[in-house]
Amino acid sequence: MVKITDVARRAGVSPSTVSYVLSGKRSISAATQRRVEASIRELGYRPHAGARALASSRSNVLALVMPLRSGIHVPVQMQFAGAVATAARGHDHDVLLLTQEEGEDGLRRMADSALVDGLIVMDVQLSDARTPLLRTLPLPSVLIGFPAEAGGLTCIDLDFTATGESCVGHLAHLGHRCVALLGSPPEVYVRGTGFARRTAAGFTGVARRYGMTSTVLPCEPSRAAARQTADRLLRDHPGLTGIVVHNEPALPLLMEAFQRAGMRIPQDLSVVAVCPDELAENAAVPVTSVAIPADEVGERAVELLMTKLNGVAVPETTLLSPRLTPRASTTVCGPAS
Amino acid sequence: MVKITDVARRAGVSPSTVSYVLSGKRSISAATQRRVEASIRELGYRPHAGARALASSRSNVLALVMPLRSGIHVPVQMQFAGAVATAARGHDHDVLLLTQEEGEDGLRRMADSALVDGLIVMDVQLSDARTPLLRTLPLPSVLIGFPAEAGGLTCIDLDFTATGESCVGHLAHLGHRCVALLGSPPEVYVRGTGFARRTAAGFTGVARRYGMTSTVLPCEPSRAAARQTADRLLRDHPGLTGIVVHNEPALPLLMEAFQRAGMRIPQDLSVVAVCPDELAENAAVPVTSVAIPADEVGERAVELLMTKLNGVAVPETTLLSPRLTPRASTTVCGPAS
DNA sequence: ACACCCCGTCGAAACGATTCGACAATCCCG
DNA sequence: CGGGATTGTCGAATCGTTTCGACGGGGTGT
Questions:
Q1: Which PANTHER family match (chains A, B) (predicted)?
Q2: Mean pLDDT, rounded, of chain B
Q3: The listed CATH number (3.30.200.20, 3.40.50.2300, 3.10.20.10, 3.30.365.10) that belongs to domain B160-291
Q4: Which residues, listed in sequence order, are joined to residue B63 by a DSSP beta bridge?
């Protein structure tokens, strides 16, 4: 293994000088810098991560806490992870994977062992047992998602309230008066995942403001549940002309169920979804949708964490504005042509 | 921060003794052991990862190289990752996430910086630029998937040849004589992902042995491509009664396309898929399928790596046998009832 | 021309563990 | 009861960086 002293010897300088060239923490003459950099390249030197971490008390690793087996839509998680990993590399950091199941002990382990410099926590619940711990941990952290009580934490997410508002607003402007939100499975609401509730709040708020008739229903992602939900909705609300679906796996099932019940899309029923563009584009009828900007969220999360690592304060709350993309599944409300 | 000397002082022993209690590398009297363990617990001591790595030249971290944005089916990847992370924790190791894009440099970086003890590489191509490097790297590695030339490497995967054989065998025993394999998009074959080719080989081999008429076609996961593929297949092979689908996103689209073309499932067409059980169970007609045992593969991969880390030799090749689960989508070939 | 300051570099002391050789104390057996 | 093996513990060296204080040399200001 080639070490810093080897580089130093070859460049005719002391080890500390090599270190300073690498870190830029002291000024180095151009000539020395060139010689050192050449030696580094020629020897293929890379600092020993452990030694560096020990001496500098910085590991250059971030922990990413991921829900690896939950009912949440998986591809989006993956996109988060990819974005975080890529962004982290851009800041010369690596990413350590931590599973949700490790829970609070996992976080404490990270802190005590100095294995990572900071934490990015995904899938935060409204009432999340980890938030008190995160507030007191000596490790900086950024949460993707919002707990009910976010004071003292750094959180970032898509603005789901605005997303709900935007979806129902789109329907309202198309003249729809009776709408429904079909959300995540009941268990997601029960365990209090923030985004589900906030979408519902935005949806209901704007619907009320426009004087629309609105309903919110959870939905399991099974064909049977989708049919049942659709049938029940049509029975209880014969005037229904628009739905918002915030449940990725259930989206195709629900569209199928409504069509089976005699509703043509978009002639009889307009559909707006909260889902990745890819899914929306490839549906039988391309779906008007709001995508979760996972790449941007991940990247911004890393940026926030890096800023905190540099001792600079960051805003507690970062909300990304939703962008609604109109597609074939929504049209003006009126007698079918 | 509490360090080993603190623990030692409180327990009335020397730091080295504490270290030996922790590692078990020397025998310690029961009494001392108890005292040391108590001190550790009371002070909440955890070894400093960097210091430990420096002194022992073991970081207790594994790198997992993941394809984060490819055309491969995502949930399965995620399942691998989860299984690897969990298994690694079981061996007191953590998992560092490395993206495919880092490529060979990423691997070299891991080796040079001593950031990890070993590598688990997913999504290996038949002709993979990383395999020569992996052979020479001083870091032990395990590949999930097989390159064309696997000598000198440790590889594990589902036995896709046997999987193809098993699928077509199932159809054969039901009396089908004219069958097709619908696989991954062309790009996957082109870039030479091993599993796609091996499934096809197993499929074709057994079909020939049974004297069946067989076809292999790639398929893009879009509605249009699915329809085109189905129509073309039915035109070219009017006697077709069985298909094997090895393309998760395309599975529902293909089933829909065949039904639209007038084929009832399973009365007119039997369908076998290679996909997760969850997907197979939730299809309109539950699909007879072979699942990729991602959990087992991930766990075994970690086990293999740990064994190598302990300096023990392991088999170069580990193939997991496929298990076919019959469901409603396959039935005996014959005149429709 | 003198004092002063800044720039570039060096040497040495951390950082917090692991591990090796040494050393008592205990044990067993003749 | 003594000698050799065994067991349990300790002290000191070591791992490869970073970082702090010091120091010489050249420039600047007066």
A1: LACI-RELATED TRANSCRIPTIONAL REPRESSOR (PTHR30146), LACTOSE OPERON REPRESSOR (PTHR30146:SF153)
A2: 94
A3: 3.40.50.2300
A4: B96, B119
Quote the CATH superfamily of domain A4-56.
lambda repressor-like DNA-binding domains (1.10.260.40)
Residue A153: name the closest of A172, A168, A167, A140 by CA: A140
Whether B94 has its CB under 8 Å from any CB of chain A: the answer is yes
Instruction: Return the SS3 of A299.
Output: helix
pLDDT of residue A71: 57
- How far is the CA of A7 from the CAs of A4, A46, A336, B156, in angstroms? 5, 10, 77, 40
Residues A266, A326 contacting (CB under 8 angstroms): no
A78 chain-B contacts, CB cut-off 8 A: 68, 74, 77-78
Q: Average per-residue pLDDT in chain A?
A: 94
pTM (2 d.p.):
0.92
Q: What is the pLDDT of residues B253-267, one digit of tens each?
A: 999 999 999 999 999
* Å from the B310 CA to the C28 C1': 35
Residue B31 contacts residue B50 (beta carbons within 8 Å): no
Domain range B61-158+294-320, CATH class: alpha beta
Query: What's residue B283's pLDDT?
Result: 85
3-state secondary structure of A140: coil
Q: Does B99 touch chain A (CB under 8 A)?
A: yes
Average pLDDT over residues A62-81: 84
